[in-house]
Amino acid sequence: MIEVVSAERCIACDACIDVCPTHVFDRGADGVPVLARRSDCQTCFMCEAYCPVDALFVAPRTEALPPEDPQREESYLIEHGLLGSYRSELGWGGGRLGARFAIGPELP
Hints:
Blueprint: E1 2-5, H1 15-19, E2 25-27, E3 33-35, H2 46-50, E4 56-58, H3 74-79, H4 85-89
Antiparallel strand pairs: 1-4, 2-3
GO molecular function: 4 iron, 4 sulfur cluster binding; metal ion binding
Domain 4Fe-4S ferredoxin-type: 1-30, 31-61
Keywords: 4Fe-4S, Iron, Iron-sulfur, Metal-binding
């Protein structure tokens, strides 16, 4: 089930919103996807696979993790290399955080 959307990493590209077959996400006012219908998540990993900046984590369970589970904490996921790990296992790459700077105009 989808557990984490990293607002810090997200580039508001809407890829996760577009690929989710059960429409779990809504676009937030700031562009960052909001888990609007989390209970509809089918744990298909599409959102995590298509996220170009590894901003999502889907736990390989069909039910939500308990609130105290460390896999609900972004810092834990980063420390253990779990953000984007599914994408990496697919062979689609990983660690594309630098991509946020390649999209859009060059900053001064």
